[in-house]
Amino acid sequence: MLKVDVDRTQCQNFGQCVLEAPNVFVLNAKDEMEYTPVVDDSELENVEAAIDVCPMQAISLVSGR
Ligand code: SF4
Fold first, then answer.
1. Are strands 2-6 and 38-39 parallel, antiparallel or unpaired?
2. Which residues contact 53 (CB under 8 A, 6 or more apart)?
3. Residue 49's domain is classified under what CATH number?
4. Which residues contact 22 (CB under 8 A, 6 or more apart)?
5. d(CA 28, CA 61)
6. Residue 59: Cβ-neighbour burial (10 angstroms; 0-12, 13-18, 19+)
7. Is 59 near ligand 1, meaning CB less than 6 Å away?
8. What separation in Å is there between the alpha carbon of 13 and the centre of ligand 1?
């Protein structure tokens, strides 16, 4: 399993991560980003893509593979 962490002090709810990894990151009804902190290894590429596109560099992978 992968552990995903988002620094809420950095996140500006831009939502780019949602486009890259929709199974992990979603925008709720208030347009606030919510995420699943523990996801299956199969999401690794998507999470890495989300890390790359996040303009605030708020996403990190706590443990991988
Ligand atoms: S891309 Fe980054 S700043 Fe935007 S919602 Fe996702 S974590 Fe937050």
1. antiparallel
2. 16, 17, 19, 20
3. 3.30.70.20
4. 46
5. 22
6. buried
7. yes
8. 5
Share of the chain above pLDDT 90, in %: 94
- What value does the CA radius of gyration of the chain take, rounded to a whole number of Å? 11
Number of independent structural domains in the chain: 1
Whole-number pLDDT of residue 22: 98
From 34, 52, 59, the mutation candidate for ligand 1 (largest count of ligand atoms within 8 A of CB) is: 59
Q: Is the pLDDT at 18 greater than 70, yes or no?
A: yes
What is the domain extent for residue 22? Answer: 2-63
Q: Are 59 and 16 in contact (CB under 8 A)?
A: no
* CB of 36 closer than 8 Å to CB of 26: no
